Amino acid sequence: MNIFECHNYEDLSKKAADIIAETVRQKPDAVLGLATGGTPEGVYRELVRLHKTEGLSFKNITTINLDEYAGISSEDPNSYHHYMNTHLFQHIDSEKNRHFLPDGKAEDVEAECERYDRLIDSLGGADIQLLGIGQNGHIGFNEPGTSFKSRTHSVELNEQTRQANARYFPSIDDVPKKAITMGIETILSSKRIVLIASGKSKAAAVKTLLDGKISEECPASALHLHPHVSVLIDKEAASLRH
Ligand code: F6R
Fold it and tell me: Mapping DSSP to helix (H, G, I), strand (E, B) and coil, where does residue 121 land?
């Protein structure tokens, strides 16, 4: 695991975007595993800038997202599909029919999870997977206690995660209670992983990830089992390590 302590959020976002851009330059038909949430917004801004001002083309990429809320459609402004359109897809030249997310509206959720895993397998896994981290160490929506052997599955969101995500919804009651997420094993099937963490609220999770033991109580600690992981943190996220 390579750890990069960045000066600030902007620096972290640029470094993560550069790693993704390099992957696309080397392999124009790369499969990019993407994340949503507050932390990756700067990475997407920088990728859009690289596309608009430096000619970086995403024409032949495929994207697979980590997760999606259950019970809301892809057009819902709170869906992760909508987030991806707003922050990235509508600003670059990638092909709409190669943007994949779990279908939150699927009637047969189990079949949808299997379909998503088969899709990821058929693509050969992500060439690079971008991850954020929850305050409780979750990755994707894999909450503490999730098996490291998990594949794409449906989850009940815990209260801390719903509270953390409530900022995007009119009220906490509007935050979905369920989601579909890639499992830990699915995430580990990526060829390369980049985890980004910014701000004081992530400092405890970052310390457990980097200095604690490998345990299903900290889902992100599974990343120690992967051979090619970069962890990019800013000074605040690193503050409990020193
Ligand atoms: C998002 C995801 C989550 C977030 C995590 C951190 O697709 O899978 O694991 O990465 O909750 O979210 P932010 O960046 O909003 O703090």
Answer: helix
